[in-house]
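Sat 14:20. Reprocessing the chain from the morning session after the first attempt stalled halfway. Input below, unchanged.
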Amino acid sequence: MNLKELAAYLNLSQTTVSRALNGFPEVSEATRKRVAAAAEQHNYRPNTRAKALATGRAMAIGHVIPLSSQHEMVNPIFGDFIAGAGESYAAAGYDMVLSLVEDKKQEKAYREMASKRNVDGIVLHAPRMSDPRIGLLREIGLPFAVHGRASDLAGEYCWLDVNNKSAFDRATRFLIDLGHRRICLVNGLESMDFAWRRRAGYEYALEAAGLPLDPALMYAEEMTESYGYRTVVKTQAMVDPPTAYLVSSIIPAMGVRRAIEDSGRQMGRDISVITHDDDLSYLRNGDEVPQFTATVSSVQEAGRQLANLLLDQIRNPGQPLPTRLLEAQLTVGRSTGPAPTLR
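Finished this time. Tokens:
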């Protein structure tokens, strides 16, 4: 069914149907729901090009992906975020524009998107503590939303983030309650805001328990499997090695597990591990019983929600910029147990 046929079926003008489907505020909620239900019933899908001409919008959202030898964007977790965001875009009739550029060419890519008007909004990924891209996007004037936050920047902007500090505070306290006193932090790059917040939560829990902060037990690198492996090998060679590891991603956590097993020890019995688990669709944390005790947060759901925040911002310009803070859940798995000294 095309637009003309749908309008005739509803006994409405084509303009009213188009405006209802595109969320124009002058169309009543009752009419919008009636039109949406009929469109779904008759499998109506608007032509994107025609829709863009009718609304004056590009009907697309831009994502600039930096290509770098050392950058958190190479993490495959990004794929699940894009899948979640893509669901929200498709439901709203929007396309996704991915632009892969060198780190130094990001500004040019954002400015070209704005000048060509080939997107209606932009999602900014992996913000750093003081991220110049946020100021750039404010200057450009296109609606944008940030997956995460930039703690060193003032001013309002649209963002969605996980409460990373709270998650790692809780995970560290869980290990302390199990009797662990030497807890190694296997963090991501701490120029990234999420990693800085996770370290803050870890340190806060140790200080609250009266435990010393030992720089020799705090690591921050690109979150790869080999990084997790190397960290365990190095720290277990210490005179007083850690009895537990708090890891920023399930990917290095796999390296941590491999190193523990290669040393002839058992994860959960001899050494405890807690990881942040982004609930990946292609990398599940066990089946009925989780393999790792984890602070769980779905990155795919984060993609869906952030996309909707941005789409709402595009549809309703001039409204207060939305923000959303998600809480991670602590799920107990096979990887944690009492500190060996308590057995």
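Residues 289 and 333 are 6 Å apart (CA to CA).
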